[in-house]
Task: structure prediction
Amino acid sequence: MDKVVADPAAAIAGITDGASIAVGGFGLCGIPSVLIRAVLDAGITDLEAISNNCGVDDWGLGLLLRAKRIRRMVSSYVGENKEFERQYLTGELEVELTPQGTLAERLRAGGSGIPAFFTPTGAGTQIAEGGLPWRYAADGTVALASPPKETREVEWMGSTRTVVLEHAIVADFGLVRARKGDRLGNLVFERSARNFNPVAAMSGQLTIAEVEELVEPGELDPDEIHLPGIYVQRVLPLTPEQAADKRIERRTVRPARAAPPTTAPPTTAPSSPTTEV
Result:
C-alpha cells in the first residue's frame, strides 16, 4: 500500500479543531517542522499537543503556541519558550507536566494496546498526590489542579515499593520526522532524532511521517528499520530545502583561540660534537 501524499496540505487532511496531536522530537532535534507549519497554515486551533516540549518562540510547536492554536500541552520540559511561560502563568494555556520517562511510556503504551501501567516514578510527590497546577486563573490562583492518582504497594526487587498508576496516551494524530522512509511507511531515524518520534508515531491513531529521503519498498534493510510501517498511515517526502532546514535550540560554542606563536627554525645547523682520542 503506497502511503505517499503529494504535499503538506494533503498530509494533514482530517486534522480538525480540537484534535489531539502527539508530536515527535526533543528540543528542536527531529521535530516534524513541515507538518507543524502546515497545521499552522491551515488555521487549525484548540489543539491538545503531546510532546516532550513546545519548541522555542519562533520554531516548532512554538509557532502554533504563539498563534494561540494550542489549548492544552502534555509535556515534560518547557523551559526554552518564554511565550509558553507567559501563557501558562496567565491562564491562557493548560499544562499537564509529566516526568519524561513516564511520558515516553504513556505514548508507547497507547500504541501497544496497554491501557495503563504502574511506575515508581512520582510516588510521594504531587505527581501522585495531586495538586499540580494544570491551569492558572488570571489573578494567579490555581483554577485547575491535577487529581490524585491511584497508588499501591508492591514487592519489587527485594523491597516494598509504592507505585503510581499512569494511563496510556492515545492521540488522534501522530506527527513525526524520519531520516528515511519507504512508501509503505517503514521509518529510519537519524541518531538522536530517534527520541520521542517512534513512541509519538505509535500513539497516533493516524500517524503522518515527513521523511528527508524517500526510498522504494525493499531498499531498507529490515534490521535498519526503527519503526514498522504498520504505525504510519501517511508519508510526506520532503524537498532537499525542507530536509536541510534544521535549527539549533541553543548554540553554545567555545571562543576562538589565538594561534600559538611559532618558533623560527635556526638559520644554521649546530656543529657536531668532536671527540678527542
